[in-house]
Design a protein that fits this description.
Elements: H1 9-18, H2 21-34, H3 36-46, H4 53-67, H5 78-92, H6 95-116, H7 121-139, H8 147-161, H9 168-186
Amino acid sequence: MPVKAPIKWIEVKRELNALSQPELIELVKNLFDQSHENKLFLASRFSSQPLGEDAIAPYRKRIVDQFFPTRGFGKLGLAEARKAIREYKKATSDLLGTAELMMVYVEQGTEFTNTYGDIDEVFYNSMESVLAELVKLLSSPQGRVLYPVFSERLSELEHDAGDIGWGYGDEVSRMVEEFEKAMSTDGEATLDDEE
């Protein structure tokens, strides 16, 4: 039996155009009630307040649980941890929260290998890739203001990764040092710069 193709946007749009305003509001409310991601998406679009810890906490937990769950051993579901970062970013467009989740990912991976020993090349490539994404985000015109929030943690990461094999410690050191040099050369951004 052939699988029916999912509905296309043009069909959804036609149906939405036919709804009255109360029907449309009810539909959005149903979507809001259906999942945390939907609530987060709508909150990021309509709230005048920063999202705060309540919004990011479930995503942080999804990342941490892949390395250090409350019970048992981490499964190292790196794809699941990275998915949490992507979903948060897509739902909110919140640079600070996205950078925080990237930092947590790399910190947790570094702590995991310092706790349990060397892993493998795929693991370290993933850590390096997320760190590179974080550095790119913090180097962007919008992200530069966030640098002071992460500066100390990046230095701690460099220290904690120092003795890790597979070239990981060296690569973390190189990335962090080049990033910090670029930030100091261009003049450090501060939170006051954006006001």
